[in-house]
Amino acid sequence: MIARSDEKQFRVKSLSYILVLLSQMNRRTKPLIDAVVNRFTYQSIDPKHYKEKYLIRMMSALNQLNYVDIAFLKKASDLLCNKKFLNCVTPSDRRDLLVAISHSNWSYPRLLNEYIEKITDTNNDFSPQDFLVFVSSVARLHSGANYLNDILVNYVIPYVKREDLDADSWLLYVWSLSIIGCAPINCIKSVMNHEFYEQLMNFTDSVAEIEMNEKIDFEPIVAKNRETLKREVSLEKYRKYVLRMLTSFEPNISTNISTPFGFSIDAEFIINRNNEFLSLKEYGILGGDPSNKVRELPPDFKRCAIMCFGFNDTLLGETGLIGTHELSIRL
């Protein structure tokens, strides 16, 4: 029997249990998930009945189920922030939350501010692994926030050393700092040598023999981040159609240009306000091989580039791009 005072708390716990069970069974039963999410989002229960660990478990479970609902995420995030959740959850829970919002592309300033407040507290108990997850999440969700540089330089970078992380995690850490634009020279040099890549390959080989989650105690972000560099099937089909139409309309357009930075430009062309094109064979392709010779353009002509992005490449509910794609635009 459940006492009346515990009934509402039990209801929240039960909703959490349903989502966690579905995620563990890998059963994306959408009508049931919709019902649970709507019940949580629109029911009126005193905030004191929401336990932080259940809110985080629900957000993590929905992330595993690849289910995104902005109203749910906002309510859960606000409840967590109102409760100052970082003061009472376990390190595993706070990492799980960062992973969940990162994979959902949920860039919510209140959550970021809570983590910043905790990190800038000199009594924080963040480990190098905690800092790794924080930095990689920030790089994905808040890469354009310039004020983060000072926080990372003063409160994160001094406390994460090369020996604290394995090769794969260290590469993710340095790459994330690079996206944000505050990677120290010594960190960049540490990954730009043959010895490091030998360590990286050895680590990759060992991971192939064991479960990743037995090696690292949070869901690996590396694989997810690498997947963002791939094209969605629907986007790739649409992209090919658009580029085929462009090239049939105007032959002076170059497509599928590989850059030295690791991403591709879908199309490049030279045009003026009168819709007159210039030949790329004559003036060169700027976005490709740096050794390519390019000529100075006549007055009023501009080089233009096209890069196609899909829904999963943007921040949830916003028009901004996730960190890796934001970096490609800047470059």
Strand segment tally: 4
Q: How many helices?
A: 16
Distance between the termini: 62 Å
Shape: globular
Low-confidence stretches: 1-5, 207-230
- Strand percentage: 5-15%
Q: Helices and strands, in N-to-C order? A: HHHHHHHHHHHHHHEEEHEH
If you compute it from the alpha carbons, what radius of gyration comes out, rounded to the nearest whole angstrom?
23 Å
Largest sheet: 4 strands, antiparallel
The level of helicity is 40-55%
Kindly give the count of domains. 3
Please tell me the overall pLDDT: 82
How would you classify the helix and strand content by structural class? alpha+beta
Describe the 3D structure.
This protein has 331 residues and is α+β, with helices and mostly antiparallel strands. It folds into 3 domains: 1-83, no CATH class; 89-227; 233-309, no CATH class. It has helices at residues 4-25, 30-42, 52-64, 70-82, 91-103, 109-119, 128-141, 148-155, 167-180, 185-191, 194-207, 212-215, 221-227, 233-249, 280-283, 323-330; strands at residues 254-258, 264-271, 277-278, 302-306. Strands 1, 2, 3 and 4 form a 4-stranded antiparallel sheet that branches. Strand 1 and strand 2 (264-271) form a beta hairpin. Helix 1 (4-25) packs antiparallel against helix 2, helix 3 packs parallel to helix 5 and helix 5 runs parallel beside helix 7. The model is unreliable at 1-5 and 207-230 (pLDDT under 50).
